[in-house]
Give the backbone structure.
Amino acid sequence: MRTGESICSFSKGHPHAELPGALQDWRGQRVLKNFHKETDMKVIALNSSPRGEGISKTGVLLDALAAGMREAGAEVETIHLRQKKINNCMGCFTCWTKSPGVCIHKDDMTRELFPKWLEADIAVYATPLYHFTVNASMKAFIERTLPVLEPFLLRVDGKTFHPLRQNLNPPRSVVLSVAGFPEPSVFDQLSLYVNSLFGKGLLAEIYRPGAEMLTLPELAKTKKDILEATVQAGREIVQSGSICARGMERITQPIGGDFDSFSAMSNLFWKSCIQEGLTPREFHQRNLIPRPDSIETFMMVMLRGFKPECAAQTKAVIQFTFSGEVEGSCHFRIDNGRIEAKLGALANADLIVESPFGTWMDVTTGKSGGKWLYMRRKYKASGDMSLLPRIRELFGRAD
Ligand SMILES: Cc1cc2nc3c(=O)[nH]c(=O)nc-3n(C[C@H](O)[C@H](O)[C@H](O)COP(=O)(O)O)c2cc1C
């Protein structure tokens, strides 16, 4: 997290956070709300994701944060910006001249959001990362808070800013964002931006890279830990105005293993969407399986589909030897609920499936039935044949 002076010093006194000296100079004459307990605290939680509930990762994290804030006694109102009409700032400066503090637009921002934002003690700006920064709806909201400032130019420590209008008192800020890319540095530009914008009024930044991966079933435990840490972060923000270092570590913990497997699975998913002519949402809704394009991605897809609970009593090695567009072998060692995947053939595999690669990928993705293709001799199997029909049970779709 970086710190910097704000162009506008958006901040309201937090019950447990002292106003820094530079802000006190400007805000010394203000009447700051004096909280006696956290139950007095009002939070406005702004979600700018255009995606609806159940898909938006911004929403998933924001819901967890808001739950924690409520648990700590705050009154939290979540507002979905996608449901609101917020016109773009026209740069007319009417709010600085003819109607000081009042925007010329007559829309949801003027009528509802700006007054609620001013009333709040904390504003949570929750945005998906778009092109390394806040998305357009969030930017429109932020630009439309211009009436809170006065036009005059002031300079402190070599930095120019506009002072806050005397009778308007904006909330302190928490920024929450999610991104598709897995590395934490993807938020560097956003962090720089919000630190410049909110300055010392910025209480916390919560950034979750690789957020799209959180829907993967094998990451359910990691997702649970991230969300529990986010609930805790909500409590801490209300109680102390910051998030502890351990909590931030849990929220930003690495997921998806190394970059190569992260990108291989991600690219496979996108290729499959393109092949099927489906959006990611439609792909998920149809419960489809990404089509492997190499032995390595086949191993990943099989590992993702593995059901340990169905393999509790199983000890076996299942091997696949492929021909045609992709050639080579791999094997899966199942040992009482545990699984290990390796490239190459073994002399003592319990079941060996020999198949053209494309044929078995049809089976893996559910395009063709394994039994039907076996009866038509489209692939061969040898060894313990009782394991062949169990592939579906052990690995999901592949039967
Ligand atoms: C227009 C657009 C731009 C995006 N830009 C970035 C980006 O710069 N970096 C990144 O890691 N992800 C980027 N993403 C991916 C989103 O941040 C990611 O899918 C996020 O989980 C979406 O959040 P949501 O599910 O709450 O809408 C972009 C997505 C879109 C649609």
About this structure: Confidence is low (pLDDT under 50) at residues 1-11, 13-36. The CA atoms of residues 47 and 80 lie 5 Å apart.
